[in-house]
Amino acid sequence: NVNKITPLHAGCHIKLPREIMFKRAVVNVQSTDNACFAWAVVAALHPAEKYPERVSQYPHYSTVLNMCGIEFPMTLPQISKFEKLNTISVNVFTTEGRSIVPLRLTDDKQEKHVNLLYVSRNNEAHFVYIKDLSRLVSSQLSKRNGKKYICDR
């Protein structure tokens, strides 16, 4: 049930659980500001050749995203506003136990589409870019190896 999770804010950098790190399916940009949501979106739109966890590998989010009227740390209700300002659709997933579950699915999938993982620990929260949703969730769907094609709706 998605409604029982009421995330507060997303801050800057959280060390991800080992199970997620081992899958090499996410990009965890380590920013020093509270704009991890924006950095995760930029990581999706402008993939880094090397050191994808470093903000120095990306254009500054303020130069490639319209963040007009959006306050950091990002909250889930603001994502719809972000989508309209930037013509980018965003799905947000989160961890529930050892599973990855949808937290927010976009109503209108755009050509530019981003899947993010929302991780919270000890009253801190963080967004990371999911570069391979199949790799991230496949082990919870089946014991067989191999690529799964996931409908992110």
Q: Determine the mean pLDDT.
A: 86
- Specify the overall morphology: globular
The largest sheet, given as strand count, sense and whether it forms a barrel, is: 5 strands, mixed
Q: Report, as a whole number of angstroms, the end-to-end distance.
A: 16 Å
Number of helices: 5
Binned strand content: 15-25%
Q: Provide the gyration radius in Å.
A: 15 Å
List the helices and strands and how they pair.
Elements: H1 18-22, E1 26-27, H2 36-45, H3 61-64, H4 76-86, E2 88-96, E3 99-104, E4 112-121, E5 124-130, H5 133-141
Parallel strand pairs: 2-4
Antiparallel strand pairs: 1-5, 2-3, 4-5
General description of the model:
By secondary structure, the protein is of the alpha+beta class. Helices cover 25% and strands 22% of the residues. It is built from five helices and five strands; from the N terminus they run αβαααββββα. The protein has helices spanning 18-22, 36-45, 61-64, 76-86, 133-141; strands spanning 26-27, 88-96, 99-104, 112-121, 124-130. The protein has a five-stranded mixed sheet with strand order 1-5-4-2-3. The longest helix has 11 residues, at 76-86. The radius of gyration is 15 Å and the shape is globular. The model is unreliable at 1-9 (pLDDT under 50).
